[in-house]
Design goal:
The chain has a domain at 825-915. 13% of the residues lie in helices and 54% in strands. It is mainly β. It has a 69-stranded mixed β-sheet that branches.
């Protein structure tokens, strides 16, 4: 073997060397002999090329050179012209590099073929034959060898060519492809090529076609296999459709980039894969359907076949509809196997990530039966299919697996609407299983429920099995559901026998339930009235236990006529039931609420209604479904505070049945209520009511103004027609009373009460100042008539047995009968007018307002009728024979009425008015507002003037300004009233009084003025004056309001004629003439009303001139009698009888008086008169009317001696005696002076002459 190989190698080397030598010789001959003169061989070359391509070839010019070791030929003006046809192909320049294999293959074999800017015509004739440059490529006749020869060339390049496509079958305009570049590389049977071209702008921007194929001849396509690639940029379907009739009726428009890969085997396309990114797409799948339009489409499309089975697929398909519906990237794969008859034998559909909303948006353009289109439009499916795998095996055999989330659809007549459904399904033709796990499930099933249902969580497992012949059975293995209203489990089954109605058997149990949501889960068959009642009536409550039973044939549902059972039993806790409009709610209900077929029953073990405890309550709706007049029956018993039952009456129509007489009623104590209501739900106003309330020794107050009742017994029966009392009795302020009450025609309720009223009873609602002044008891009767929106009240009593200790005209003894009546009529505004009369003393009317300032009160004293005032406030008028104002002032009324009604006007006439212990006759008092103040007018005997009381400009606080033409103060009857304290804090800030003619006890005192200012602890007397023709008194000072401080007065009195002043004051001729000047101050401990002589203090300076004391009445002017010394002659009989016995004339009296605690101290009081000179000192006790005085009296004798001398001795002697007397300082008078001690009382003084002669003492100073 080795030897053979050595020999073979030896011979091979020789052969190779010989071949190289021969080839070198041929190449040398070709280079030296042929190529330089290549033009001489043009005809031979045309003939050889014509045989190769199968048609005549003409060469305009030929050149030759070398490309490396291969000869290269450049042809100019090359034309391929089939016989009898115009030149279909003209090549301006062709460069061909000849391969040395041409010698071995015995045909031209090129290393490369380069064609520059060719123009190629491709034509499809009317018979469908395609000719490329006139060369048929698909004819059934003799084939051209040119395509196969071209495939045998190593490299073919076409640069910047032009292709014209002419389709005579379509009669379409020529399609010009410019800038065509083609590269073809072949190695044996493998052919790789690439083609780029620029079509018309209306069709695309650029086309790129590539291939990698294996095959030997284009005439034997069955032997070909490989791949093709096509890319088109900015491809516009509208433009391409001109040359693609198959797409003209389907892809109407699109714009975008596409690329496709195709796998070829045995000359057939086995699979196609394409990537698309298109915008503004319109596709028509059927002429009678709307276009399927997309704003954008992208994804990978695929088609393949394997044997008879074809598969269509989409990967990452994403589209946006013009309305904005967006599809997530989806994957869809559809495989099917058709039968020879064209039907589908089996099929498989697998898909991932399908957005149903997007598919629904384009479903209208998909060729489906009309019913399918209508059904899809009705249900409008939505949601997300995560995965679906459906295998149809033919003959009703299938397998299905799917997983979805947020799935849903709109409700239809027979199907529910839902959304938010999550789960998975696995099924075949005989069995299946569904597992659901949803959060936020929304269910709309109008056929079963009135309201949509929302479930925050639903987990369930459903299994089924069966067949069409044997029927189906669905088992709800478990179902757990929850939302804000409930939380529980349901299980059961549904059997669907063939030819008969389905039979259901469902049981459920809820661990949590919300009473306010019961209405949401009621069956659709529940009538409107019952449904609305449950919705409005059950307002609260929870349920720890609810059971559901649904059993029976569904053709008998809702089992109102038997044939099954629908029962919902709810254990209610803390329920709230609003069973009827305008009726109080029942709260705290514990019991069972049961819906059984067409009946609803609420059995409450206990509950509350406005604080009253319900012991047994039963609420029944006997027919929930079809009754034209659905009735509701409520029966129950309750016990609890009577106040709660009063609230029940006030907040229910019973209040109207009773005439609203319980509106302001208050009560304490227990009671029992029995109640039955029968209500037509469609007309609640026709409710029938029957009830009985039994108070148990209660206390009841009709309103805040009237006294309360205690120990109330009996019963109150009421219906929707009225109310009637049964054995009603009570105690009023401890006194038993009998009560009758009954309804009457016209919506009226009559009530009456009779019993005793004691002083202790009345004291509870009278001011403290009055309760002590009423004693005894009397009988009274109250009658009340209640009408809708009105109440009439009448109270009557003769007050016999009742003593009223008040001043006239209101006081009365116990044995006196004085009729008293009170009546009130309310007309719906809550403020009834009130009229009252007390005997013949007074009558009044009252119209309450919404505030005291808007209330009207009229009071008439006397027997005349009283009319309702037209203005707000209090109006007082009338005539009184006598009024003891002081007696009323002494009453302590406790400040009642200060913050009450505002006073509007007063007009009272008094025959006699006793005020401040002074009696005024025939006086009229009128009071009325004057801007911001009050104006008081006084007219009568001795009084005429007006007083203005209130704020004045520039004055803080209130002021009192009095201006009188005349004021005659009567003499006080006693001092009791005058000593009553007056608090200055109750007086105005300033008081200004002026009286033109002021009199006291009918004594004219002249003109009087007085100005006072209120201070913290008293009154300041700013100025006071009293003017008369013969005198003027001025005063100022301080009036204390405290018993611990002093009242002070500063006085100044000037009188030109003291005698006339005394006569003006009512005294007799006590003094003749006299000029008086007194100035000083007085004070005393305490207030003005605390004045007493034993508290008096102060200092006065007195000066009296040129007067004469006459005979004084010691009883009238005891103090003045001290100065007149008229009492002394009775005791100084011998000394000065002639001097003082008939009065005493004086030239002057002057001195100081010091007062301390009612005692006046006279340190030096000098009296100078023509008859005597007197020096008085000592003290005077004003309280005890006593004195202790030391008098030094010096008679005036000197004048008398001189007169006597003149008479006896002549004028000279008289004058000499007078001069001697003066020079010797009145020795005669001093010789006759005496000193006395005066003690004892003023009326009967004790005078003692002192033993010591007066002459020994110091002389009396003038």
């Amino acid at each position: 073997m080795i030897i053979f190989l050595r020999r073979f190698a030896h011979y091979a080397v020789y052969l190779l060397a010989g071949g190289v030598i021969l080839l070198s010789c041929f190449a040398l001959a070709l280079r030296v002999l042929i190529m330089p003169d290549i033009g001489r061989y043009k005809a031979d070359i045309e003939a050889g090329a014509g045989r190769a391509v199968g048609m005549p070839v003409k060469i305009g010019e030929i050149r030759a050179d070398w490309s490396h070791l291969n000869p290269r030929f450049s042809l100019r003006g090359l034309t391929l012209a089939p016989a009898g046809q115009p030149a279909p192909l003209r090549l301006d320049r062709v460069d061909a590099t000849l391969s040395w294999l041409s010698l071995a293959l015995m045909e031209p074999h090129l290393v490369s073929l380069d064609i520059d800017r060719p123009t190629l015509e491709i034509r499809r004739d009317q018979t469908g034959v395609i000719l490329v440059a006139g060369i048929p490529v698909n004819s059934s006749g003799a084939s051209s060898p040119f395509p196969d020869w071209l495939l045998r060339q190593r490299s073919v390049m076409v640069n910047d060519g032009k292709v014209v496509w002419i389709d005579e079958m379509l009669a379409a305009p020529p399609l010009n492809l410019n800038h065509v570049n083609l590269g073809l590389a072949s190695r044996f049977s493998r052919h790789r090529f690439g083609l780029t071209a620029q079509p018309p702008a209306s069709a695309a921007q650029r086309i790129d076609l590539r291939g990698d194929l294996n095959g030997h001849s284009v005439h034997d396509l069955a032997g070909w296999h490989g791949q093709l690639y096509l890319r088109a940029d900015a491809a516009a379907a509208a433009g391409l459709n001109t040359w693609s009739p198959w797409a003209q009726s389907s892809v109407k428009r699109s714009l975008g980039n596409v690329r496709f890969w195709a796998d070829i085997d045995q000359g057939r396309i086995q699979s196609v894969t394409g990537d698309v990114g298109l915008a503004d797409v319109a596709v028509s799948l059927a002429a009678d359907l709307p276009d399927m339009t997309f704003a954008r489409v992208s994804g990978r499309l695929g088609w393949s076949r394997k044997g008879d089975r074809q598969t269509y697929s989409v990967q990452g398909l994403r589209f946006i509809t013009p309305s904005g519906q967006t599809a997530e990237p989806a994957n869809v794969k559809v495989s099917f196997t058709p039968t020879p008859a064209g039907k589908v034998e089996s099929a498989q559909i697998a898909a991932d990530s399908l957005r149903l909303e997007a598919l629904t948006a384009i479903s209208g353009a998909v060729p489906l039966p009309r019913q399918a289109h209508d059904w899809l439009a009705a249900i409008n499916p939505h949601g997300f299919i995560e995965h679906i795998d459906l295998n149809w095996l033919g003959k009703e055999r299938f397998r299905l697996q799917t997983r979805f989330r947020d799935a849903g659809m709109n409700p239809t007549r027979n199907l529910p609407g839902l959304s938010g459904l999550n789960g998975e399904i696995e099924a075949d033709e005989s069995k299946g299983q569904a597992k659901l796990d949803s959060q936020g499930l929304h269910l709309i099933y109008d056929k079963v429920f009135r309201q949509p249902l929302d479930l925050s969580r639903l987990t369930s497992e459903i299994k089924w099995s069966g067949s069409a012949s044997a029927g189906y059975r669905f088992d709800l293995v478990h179902c757990e559901l929850s939302n804000l209203d409930l939380d529980g489990q349901v299980q059961g089954n549904l059997t669907v026998p063939p030819g008969r109605a389905p039979v259901i058997d469902i049981q459920g149990r809820l661990n949590r339930g919300n009473g306010t949501a019961v209405w949401r889960y009621l069956p659709r068959q529940v009538g409107d009235d019952a449904y609305l009642w449950v919705k409005r009536g059950i307002l609260g409550g929870t349920s720890p236990e609810t059971t559901l039973t649904l059993r029976g044939s569904l053709d008998r549902y809702p089992f109102d006529k038997g044939g099954g059972l629908l029962q919902i039993a709810i254990r209610m806790q803390d329920g709230v039931l609003d069973y009827a409009t305008n009726w109080p709610r029942i709260t705290g209900i514990n019991g069972w609420l049961t819906f059984r077929n067409n009946t609803m029953t609420l059995d409450a073990e206990h509950g509350q209604i406005l604080g009253a405890r319900l012991e047994t309550v039963k609420v029944v709706i006997p027919d929930l479904y079809y009754s034209p007049d659905t009735m509701l029956t409520v029966t129950g018993q309750a016990s609890g505070p009577t106040a709660a039952f009063l609230d029940f009456i006030r907040q229910s129509p019973v209040n109207e049945y009773m005439g609203r007489f319980t509106d302001e009623m208050k009560a304490t104590g227990p009671g029992r209520l029995h109640l039955q209501l029968v209500m037509p739900l469609s007309e609640i106003d026709r409710t029938r009511v029957a009830g009985r309330f039994v108070p148990q020794d209660d206390s009841i107050a009709l309103n805040d103004q009237l006294p309360g009742l205690t120990n109330v017994t009996g019963a109150l029966n009421f219906t929707d027609a009225g109310v009637k009392g049964e054995g009603l009795g009570a105690r009023l302020f401890g006194q038993p009373i009998a009560i009758s009450l009954a309804s009457a025609k016209g919506g009226r309720v009559h009530a009456s009460a009779t019993g005793s009223l004691t002083a202790a009873t009345l004291a509870r609602w009278l001011p403290d100042a009055l309760d002590r002044r009423i004693s005894g008891s009397t009988r009274a009767q109250a009658d009340i008539v209640l009408r809708p929106h009105s109440v009439d009240l009448k109270l009557n009593s003769n007050l016999a047995g009742l003593a009223i200790d008040l001043p006239a005209p209101l006081g009365k003894p116990a044995n006196q009968e004085t009729p008293f009546t009170l009546s009130a009529q309310e007309r719906g505004d809550g403020r009834p007018p009130v009229a009252f009369r007390y005997g013949t003393a007074l009558a009044g009317v009252l119209m309450p307002g919404d505030s005291p300032a808007r209330t009207r009160l009229g009071i008439m004293f006397g027997s005349q009728p009283v009319a309702m005032p037209k203005a707000e406030g209090i109006t007082v008028q009338g005539t009184l024979r006598r009024l003891d104002f002081d007696a009323w002032r002494r009453l302590d009324l406790g400040g009642a009425g200060r913050d009450g009604l505002p006073l509007r006007s007063v007009n009272l006439t008094f025959n006699e008015l006793l005020a401040f212990d002074r009696l005024f006759h025939d006086i009229n008092v009128q009071v009325g507002p004057e801007q911001r103040a009050w104006k008081i007018q006084l007219n009568g005997q001795g009084v005429q003037g007006e007083v203005l009381y209130g704020p004045q400009p520039g004055t803080p606080g209130d002021s009192l300004i009095g201006r009188f033409k005349k004021l005659d103060l009567p003499r006080a009857a006693s001092t009791a009233v005058s000593r009553q304290a007056i608090d200055p804090n109750d007086l105005p800030k300033e008081i200004d009084l002026a009286v033109q003619a002021f009199a006291y006890d009918r004594r004219d005192l002249g003109e009087m003025t007085l100005k006072l200012t209120a201070a913290r602890d008293g009154l300041v007397i700013d100025a006071g004056s009293l003017k008369a023709p013969e005198a003027r008194l001025e005063a100022s000072g301080w009036l204390s309001a405290s018993a611990l401080r002093n009242t002070r007065l500063n006085l100044k009195l000037d009188s030109g004629n003291l005698g006339q002043l005394l006569r003006r004051l009512g005294y007799s001729e006590d003094i003749k003439g006299g000029e008086l000047a007194v100035q000083g101050n007085l004070d005393w401990r305490g207030r003005a009303e605390d004045f007493s002589k034993d508290r008096l203090g102060g200092a006065l300076k007195v000066e009296l001139k040129n007067g004469r004391f006459t005979q004084l009445d010691p009883g009238a002017a005891k103090l003045l009698g001290i100065l007149s010394l008229q009492a002394l002659p009775r005791h100084i009989v011998l000394d000065f009888r002639d001097v003082f016995s008939t009065g005493f004339a004086f030239d002057s009296i002057r001195g100081d008086v010091m007062l301390d605690r009612g005692i006046g101290y006279l340190p030096d009081l000098y009296i100078q008169g023509p008859s005597a000179k007197i020096h008085m000192k000592g003290k005077i006790d004003l309280s005890h009317e006593s004195q202790q005085l030391r008098l030094h009296i010096q008679p005036s004798l000197t004048g008398g001696v001189a007169v006597a001398g003149a008479l006896l001795g002549g004028p000279v002697v008289g004058v000499g005696a007078l001069i001697a007397n003066k020079l010797l300082k009145d020795p005669f008078e001093q010789a006759a002076s005496f000193e006395y001690l005066v003690t004892g009382g003023w009326a009967n003084p004790v005078v003692a002459k002192l033993a010591r002669p007066v002459a020994e003492n110091a002389p009396v100073r003038p």
